[in-house]
What we know:
Elements (H helix, E strand, L loop, with lengths): L5 H8 L16 H6 L1 H11 L3 E5 L4 H13 L11 E10 L2 E12 L10 H6 L1 E4 L2 E8 L2 E7 L14 E7 L5 H19 L16
Antiparallel strand pairs: 1-2, 2-3, 3-7, 4-5, 5-6, 6-7
Helix pairs in contact: 4-6
Amino acid sequence: xxxxxxxxxxxxxxxxxxxxxxxxxxxxxxxxxxxxxxxxxxxxxxxxxxxxxxxxxxxxxxxxxxxxxxxxxxxxxxxxxxxxxxxxxxxxxxxxxxxxxxxxxxxxxxxxxxxxxxxxxxxxxxxxxxxxxxxxxxxxxxxxxxxxxxxxxxxxxxxxxxxxxxxxxxxxxxxxxxxxxxxxxxxxxxxxxxxxxxxxxxxxxxxx
Length: 208
């Protein structure tokens, strides 16, 4: 494994780009601000690449603005919410991708009321009344949903419609995946002005 020295991370992250989701060219360090500097450095090290390209929209306020705008325009026929990439880190060894870490947020198609179903209760863990976590949504993928009613959208947005945060990366261990996921959720929720802000726990919820 070729680890990238911590001082190099800021320079690599200055090349963030978010494609059609990008509001403007990200500034150096924004990915660390969204996800935590130590978390980002650790994630890069796990990928095993000697060079890293980072893309996405690593600004919590911009992600929150887009989510709020989408919620205000929500209609019952909208079955596929837009997924927004906070940060995507592709590590390269030569011309080959050696690892990828992808961090995203969207409005969830699942409601909190669905968490009590036998199927969902087998895979989801309840952290508190407004937050649930699915540690292994798929191989290398951890998911968190957090209730967030947005002011001005109560009439159109389902009252328990949660935000969904995903962190995927086969090279990440469970603990690091959780640190990235919980920091992402905390960063975005703080910018959302939720009617009742969800409390994102510091520790991964235990099995009930």
